[in-house]
């Protein structure tokens, strides 16, 4: 299989103080979600003999992808993994790993694009925004194997991790956060809610250990405070494990917030709508929001729709776990990510969201590069649970998408530059647009 690169929804991880009483403008950033699986879990023709011959303390692991390519070109004696004759009899794995790794979407995203975007973010945001990356442990080790073996075009730099390390160490925001932030992730792309807490913790630790390898961040590695759940698959059951690693916030699909509202529109959306999932269990409807209205957006290139109520679905919320045996409470800040915007950008490389309100005329001529801010309305507290006081997370984060190509050019906007923008009052969006006469706005990125 071949996985799409997902330069996913933009959001903020650094904790910025509110700039005004009652509402804080929050700089936001770009997220790269980089992963490539290990395509062939081959160990040896005679696994027991190889294991017995392995020195104590030496690694016992599957074959990295550069070595899988070698194996296919020159299989060892006794290798028995071939497709059936009826299917052509080709050697397995059938995947063409050279073709998988060669496109720019792989060579760039793994080796230099995130660092370039981090430098752009530093400039455009006034050193306030961040670029968050899930560079999975699996893809780090595979890229290292390719750079060592030199058997795939585009991976000729044996010291490819140096640019990651240099940007990680030297590029800081105005309040001393790392502009390039490698957020927590399950190193083998495992789905946390499905694998159980023990393996979930193991894969998180594997990820951090890989980030700290000499060929990547080495001894400079410091764990992030953020977490990106595989395929945005989140459950409150993950929170106690994440808390063990010091995680303070997690990306969560925005429609999952909407599915906790008591006025969820059951009459309009059944199992044929709302991303083709069943309507939420009524026991999960524990929150209220009197602001805004319900919006159904068609999923890009799909038959589903995403159902949300804004601004509730674009506002950070505390998410907590209560241990049923002890009553112990752990919590983190849930950062809403645009489900539909992320999907659309993954397909088309550029996206902007207007689902929550009509697009004003002044916004219709636009660049395909934009970033986001968030304003937390003073009138919209978050209820953590029925009967509990209204609470809000710290001025922390929001999520929507930023495009992966920069076509913002002064020639397109003769009276504006790429640093000119307009923040829609009360929205979660700031876009690189010509600022209409008589208007004001802030654009951190």
Integer average pLDDT: 75
Portion of residues in helices? Answer: 10-25%
Compute the separation of the termini in Å. Answer: 35 Å
Low-confidence stretches: 1-23, 355-445
What is the string of helix and strand elements?
EEEHHHHHEHHEHHEHEHEEEEHEEEEEE
Output the radius of gyration: 23 Å
Strand order of the main beta sheet, please? 6-7-11-10
Shape: globular
Number of strands: 17
The largest sheet is: 4 strands, mixed
Explain this structure.
The protein is of the alpha/beta class and 445 residues long. The chain folds into two domains: 9-39 and 97-408, no CATH class; 47-87, no CATH class. It contains twelve helices and 17 strands. The strands form seven sheets. Strands 6-7-11-10 form a four-stranded mixed beta sheet. A hairpin with a 6-residue loop joins strand 10 (317-322) and strand 11. The model is unreliable at 1-23 and 355-445 (pLDDT under 50).
List the helices and strands and how they pair.
Blueprint: E1 9-11, E2 25-27, E3 30-34, H1 47-53, H2 65-73, H3 97-101, H4 104-111, H5 113-124, E4 131-135, H6 137-149, H7 161-170, E5 180-182, H8 192-195, H9 197-211, E6 226-227, H10 239-244, E7 249-253, H11 254-258, E8 293-298, E9 305-310, E10 317-322, E11 329-337, H12 339-348, E12 373-375, E13 382-383, E14 390-391, E15 399-401, E16 422-423, E17 430-431
Parallel strand pairs: 3-4, 4-5, 6-7, 7-11
Antiparallel strand pairs: 1-15, 2-12, 8-9, 10-11, 13-14, 16-17
């Amino acid at each position: 299989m071949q996985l799409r690169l997902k330069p996913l929804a933009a959001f903020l991880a650094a904790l910025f103080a509110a700039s005004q009483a009652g509402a804080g403008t929050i700089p936001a950033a770009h997220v790269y979600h980089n992963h490539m699986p290990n395509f062939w879990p081959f160990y040896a023709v005679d696994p027991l003999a190889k294991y017995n011959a392995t020195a104590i303390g030496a690694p016992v692991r599957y074959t990295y992808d550069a070595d899988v390519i070698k194996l296919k070109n020159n299989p060892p004696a006794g290798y028995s993994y071939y497709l059936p004759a009826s299917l052509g009899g080709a050697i397995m794995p059938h995947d063409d790993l050279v073709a998988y790794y060669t496109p720019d979407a792989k060579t760039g995203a793994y080796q230099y694009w995130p660092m370039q975007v981090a430098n752009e973010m530093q400039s455009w945001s006034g050193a306030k925004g961040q670029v968050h990356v899930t560079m999975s442990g699996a893809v780090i080790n595979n890229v290292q194997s390719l750079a060592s073996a030199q058997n795939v075009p585009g991976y000729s730099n044996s010291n490819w991790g140096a640019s990651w390390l240099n940007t990680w160490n030297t590029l800081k925001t105005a309040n001393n956060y790392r502009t390039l932030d490698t957020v927590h992730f399950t190193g083998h792309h495992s789905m946390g809610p499905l694998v159980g807490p023990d393996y979930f913790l193991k894969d998180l630790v594997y990820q951090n250990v890989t980030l700290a390898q000499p060929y990547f961040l080495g001894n400079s590695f410091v764990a992030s405070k953020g977490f990106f759940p595989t395929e945005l698959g989140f459950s409150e059951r993950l929170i106690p494990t994440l808390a063990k690693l010091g995680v303070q916030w997690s990306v969560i699909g925005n429609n999952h917030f909407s599915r906790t509202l008591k006025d969820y529109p059951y009459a309009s959306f059944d199992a044929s709508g709302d991303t083709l999932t069943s309507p939420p269990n009524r026991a999960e409807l524990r929150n209220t929001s009197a602001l805004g209205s319900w919006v159904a957006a068609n999923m890009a290139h799909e038959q589903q729709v995403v159902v949300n109520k804004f601004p509730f679905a674009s506002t950070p919320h505390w998410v907590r776990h209560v241990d049923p045996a002890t009553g112990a409470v752990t919590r983190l800040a849930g950062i809403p990510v645009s489900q539909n915007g992320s999907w659309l950008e993954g397909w088309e490389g550029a996206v902007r969201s207007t689902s929550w309100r009509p697009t004003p005329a002044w916004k219709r001529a636009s660049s395909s590069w934009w970033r986001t801010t968030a304003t937390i309305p003073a009138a919209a507290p978050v209820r953590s649970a029925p009967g509990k006081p209204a609470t809000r997370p710290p001025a922390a984060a929001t999520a929507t998408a930023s495009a992966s190509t920069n076509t913002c050019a002064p020639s397109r906007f003769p009276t504006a530059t790429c640093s000119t923008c307009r923040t829609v009052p009360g929205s979660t969006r700031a876009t690189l647009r010509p600022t209409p006469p008589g208007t004001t706005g802030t654009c951190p990125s």
